[in-house]
Write a structure and sequence with these properties.
This protein is an alpha+beta fold. The chain has a domain of 96 residues: Kinase associated domain 1, KA1 (TATA-Binding Protein). 52% of the residues lie in helices and 29% in strands. Strands 1, 2, 3, 4, 5 and 6 form a 6-stranded antiparallel β-sheet that branches. Helix 2 crosses helix 3. The longest helix has 40 residues. The termini are far apart.
Length: 140
């Protein structure tokens, strides 16, 4: 009787230890890819004026065809949706970085799937950089 219980118990332990190794590898791969995605999603700007930054983010999203869903000055967040045969939602967060910079992070989802492709982020930040430059130099 003990042998019949011992064999399945050993097999379960072996299979569980194999799962643990696999999940640890998945966690490590996810962490590395998350760091790469975060680098794509984040830019620093040489300004400390959070209000102007948020207004520029809103204008940039609107210029790119987004409809602003929410904007919260206290939290430093703006969310917008672009409906063009698909649903792309972007949430942008601003926060101070040191004494002279503001960190801007954009997070996009396509329908309900996180966007990992760098292109939408590059388009957003290229437009935002131009708008931030024009705002800083008082040009319209």
């Amino acid at each position: 009787m003990r042998k019949s219980i011992l064999l399945p118990l050993v097999l379960v332990c072996i299979s569980l230890s194999a799962c643990q190794t696999t999940s640890m590898n998945q966690v490590m791969e996810t962490s590395e890819s998350q760091v790469a995605i975060r680098q794509i999603q984040t830019r620093a700007f040489d300004t400390t004026n959070n209000t102007k930054t948020l207004r520029t983010v809103i204008a940039t999203l609107q210029d790119l065809g987004f409809v602003i869903d929410k904007a919260d000055k206290e939290l430093g967040t703006v969310s917008g949706t672009k409906l063009d045969g698909y649903q792309l939602r972007m949430t942008v967060t601003t926060r101070p970085r040191g004494k002279k910079q503001t960190l801007v992070r954009a997070n996009a989802t396509y329908n309900v799937t996180p966007v990992e492709d760098p292109e939408p982020y590059q388009q957003f930040f290229t437009a935002l950089e131009k708008a931030m430059f024009l705002t800083a130099h008082q040009a319209d």
